[in-house]
Design brief:
92 residues; alpha+beta; 6-stranded antiparallel β-sheet; 39% strand
């Protein structure tokens, strides 16, 4: 049993948005798909009905889409998000 069609579409839209910002390497792993330039800066984990993911940013942001944030170093803040429908991408 895999993810539903909405989740597959969410992944395609997210990947398209990431690629619109420049060249990126997409790295499929066992449990996630990572997006890398110099380092992995984003990853998504497909779930049955949604897409969980995170973005690594240089500073903490306070936005409605941030479900949780982790500070891993002074210039690496991990911001977790969940996408349930294509319109959620407009929040990122």
């Amino acid at each position: 049993m895999g993810a539903d069609e909405t989740v597959k579409r969410l992944f395609e839209l997210f990947a398209e948005a990431v690629r619109a910002n420049g060249e990126v390497t997409v790295i499929p792993e066992i449990t996630r798909v990572a997006f890398q330039v110099r380092m992995s800066f984003a990853a998504v984990v497909p779930r049955r009905s949604w897409l969980d993911g995170h973005l690594v940013l240089a500073q903490t942001v306070s936005e409605p889409w941030v479900r949780k944030d982790d500070v891993i170093s002074a210039r690496n803040q991990v911001h977790h998000f969940r996408l349930r429908e294509p319109s959620d991408l407009t929040l990122l």
